Amino acid sequence: GRKELPGATAERKAAADDPLAGMSLPGKSTLDTRFGANEVEKQLRIAMRTARDGDQEKAAQLLDQVLAVEPINREALIGRSSLAFEQWRKEKAPEARSAAIEKAVGLVRTLRRAYDAPKAHETEFFGRVLYAYAQQFAQTRRFDEAIKALDESAESGFEAFFSVEVDEKMGDLRKSPQFQAALKAHDAARLVAARE
After folding, report:
1. pLDDT the model gives residue 5
2. Which string of DSSP letters, residue by residue, matches the chain?
3. CB neighbour class for 106 (10 Å; exposed up to 12, middle 13-18, buried from 19)
4. Which residue has the higher pLDDT, 162 or 28?
């Protein structure tokens, strides 16, 4: 058989291979975090292939495992937020829609905080997710929160305020005094920026 180095027990070797060995992850007891950083790329490839094959739930689980090991992994953040965003678009139940968009927003915000220079597709996606978040708030007549999400979306370069003007789902928001005030402030800021 194979000889072990003196002092290298199987338990120590396993701990060295697993950076999370012995750690408990509150609320994440079903996550398998046994793989280390060297397995992250493999897990990402498997997750992306699984998503392309149509098993969104399994892909989400795999990406959650990657994020448990590397919480700011760029590809896992964008992939997992894309899956949550797609779930929001397809979901019918209000509670599940709300949970899905909250998940997507949380992940894209983490991505923006983690990376100083977002890629163009990340910035565009960030704007779309936040616009969807604004739609979610507008549909429940939470106009102040919708305006905050629109402002955040516009800061990323997404034409959020223009989109509201043509979006049928945003009719109630468009008529609100909060939106009218925010639109005036947004237009004034754009005018000042254009003059500089």
Report:
1. 40
2. -PPPPTT--HHHHHHHH-TTTT---TT-TT----S-GGGHHHHHHHHHHHHHTT-HHHHHHHHHHHHHH-TT-HHHHHHHHHHHHHHHHH--SHHHHHHHHHHHHHHHHHHHHH-SS--HHHHHHHHHHHHHHHHHHHHTT-HHHHHHHHHHHHHTT--HHHHHHH-GGGHHHHHSHHHHHHHHHHHHHHHHHHH-
3. middle
4. 162
How distant, in Å, are the alpha carbons of 25, 53, 78, 97, 132 from that of 85?
25, 18, 10, 9, 9
Number of residues that this document lists for the chain: 196
Report the mean per-residue pLDDT for the chain.
83
Confidence of residue 129 (pLDDT cuts 50, 70, 90): very high
